[in-house]
User: Fold this.
Amino acid sequence: MANYTLSSTITLPEFIRAQQVLHPNASSDLTNVLLSIALATKVVARGVNMAGLASMLGMTGETNVQGEAVQKLDVFADQVFGAMLGKSGEVISMVSEEREQLFAAQNTTRESKYVVAFDPLDGSSNIDVNVAIGTIWGVSRRESRRAKVDPAHPRDFLQPGERQVAAGYTIYGSSTMFVFSTGDGVNGFILDPEIGEFVLTHPKMRIPESGATYSCNEGNYHSWSNGVKRFVDGCKQNGASRPKPLSLRYVGSLVADFHRTMLKGGIFLYPADKRNPGGKLRLLYECAPLAFIVEQAGGRASDGTSRILGITPKDIHDRSPFIIGSPRLVEECEREVAEHQ
Ligand code: AHM
Ligand code: MG
Assistant:
């Protein structure tokens, strides 16, 4: 605590407002969206911290559109994000992992410019065991702004991830951390619970060129493609490209695995397998926002053959194989995938 004084730090709202002044693209409307997301994040962080005490752990008994058992905290986080973004007045519609259809914001107007896709609580299988979980979100400009269409139109969401104007994630871990980009680098903030505000701790984040860890569910090894198998086999060996084998690190919460990869370098992969022939992770609210962040930090994100940010989803809940991390390792994986089908 010795070197930490609030007067010498920048809080998230201060940072967002300063960005608006410095960068013409970061308009006041986007500022409002980002402030709503930051507020929703704080409410969810409180819920995550209190869940064990407030009977908010466990299943609801429902199954979501993905066919997965819904947890009480999933529902809570989904409702908080939907409500907070919905009342900002700047958002026309939203997509959530927890809802089958996109849904209109509460305070929508014809002038509302943005659509937001989010995974309100990622890493659900880790909720009950006190392991880090997260939230992932991406903001894009609505396509149908001036057209006379229903305010909530799928076409607003079916845009390649490179059109996102902002993206970010929160990790609810040993501390709560908020990381985001508006296309001008990546910055990270830790929540100071005493004052209830995020404070800038990781300015201008860059992912290392390479790293010492690979991260994947290796239980799926036998149903991967030959290229992916060869890459992962290579991670365990030393040779010309690496002096010693990489270490395996896998939390099973995408946000936690990605965050470690961002800070320390390495590679995360969730390739296609027999159970998930199109990949498991969702393009719109898992892959595209993290791809936006990683590219802004000097990293790379791919489905094995194409850049994630170039892919146009056909459906709001589309899935994709996902390979993300340090550029050298992702390129190495792409080479193996291209050469060994
Ligand atoms: P969720 O959004 O329902 O929590 O599912 C996504 C999670 C990711 O956080 C994680 O990378 C992956 O699923 C883990 O899957 P598996 O248990 O198959 O390894
Ligand atoms: Mg998820």
